[in-house]
Amino acid sequence: MTELRVGVVGGTRLPGNVRTFLENVRRLLTDAGHDLNCDLLIREGCGEDVDGYTPVDPGLSETERAIGTLRTLTQVVTTYANEQEPDLLWQVTKFPLHGCATTIAGRRTGTPVLTRFAGDNFNEFRFSEGVSAVKAFALNNLFGRVPVHGSERVIVLGPHGRSEIKRRNDDIPVTEIPQPVDREKFSPVPAERERELARELGFPDEERIFLTVGRLTERKGMRTLVETAEELYGCGEPFRWYVIGDGPMRPELAATHGVEPLGRVDFVAMPDYYRAADLVVHPSLIEGLPNVLLEAAACGTPTVARNVGDSATAASASFEDDAELADLLTGEHDPATLGERFNPDRLREAYADALVETAGKK
């Protein structure tokens, strides 16, 4: 049995998907045969309820500018590593900024660094214009070079992530490990129960039910959703398209034929929404490997996603062009299969090996 102390860099706040990732991974690693003590470096009040982690606030504070965040985070992670002497540092969110800070801190203190590349950060600048595009490029593509060249190992979620890292540093060890799904929470139910859930949620019986989950912005594909819904409505297709999430496009979605924005929904209720839907649609313009697709597949619900990042590896069907989506939504699809790649035993071994092998670089 290997005993490890892991400094997990959370930063000033944890996005919901990262919180879910951390809890699912910790649950997996409970039976990995290693004694893992995980500190979560997070601002006070932001991480006390993440199961399996000891929250540590080394003096983190919110700053408005990226360079200020980089400076502060580098300093506090360096101080933590010097004082607590963890076996490794693990960056889990905000790859360019947190990855850069964590890598610098690791180099300063002789602490191995495990980096997690979970999005499509190197291409984010393409969705901005003018000065915003320049800033996005500098943040992601310049700061992002530091963890790619300076950390001991990078975890990616799929083939696209591997390609993006290897294009920038072919020599760095890359481990392909998708995020785990809580199979107890997200699981299929009999067809009769699916119909009961649909009635309980107020879904109509006579219309096909589509479900989209995400922030209500153009980047998350909501313009595509609006245009596709109007196309289906114009063709006389019977459907109801429910959208879970919040954001600036909510009024426009509410004014679209057949679309009903539900706002935010308690995470505990999400499995029932997946089970009650006929099809989960993920039109986001930029992604890594969305939890939405994995959770829907685990519930036995078919999915359609834009072919970006590693989305197509976990979807029933994918599309490249917006014009393809309406036809896909009128077709029949089987649920995506979460096969050996997502097998909990394989994931447990892969995450444990990545942590132990990275710590061995010390």
UniProtKB/TrEMBL annotation:
MF term (GO), any: glycosyltransferase activity
InterPro entries in the record: Glycosyltransferase_grp1
SUPFAM superfamilies assigned to the protein according to its UniProt record, in alphabetical order: UDP-Glycosyltransferase/glycogen phosphorylase
Pfam families: Glyco_trans_1_4
Signal peptide: none
PANTHER family to which the protein is assigned, alphabetical: SULFOQUINOVOSYL TRANSFERASE SQD2
Protein name: Glycosyltransferase
Species of origin: Haloarcula salinisoli
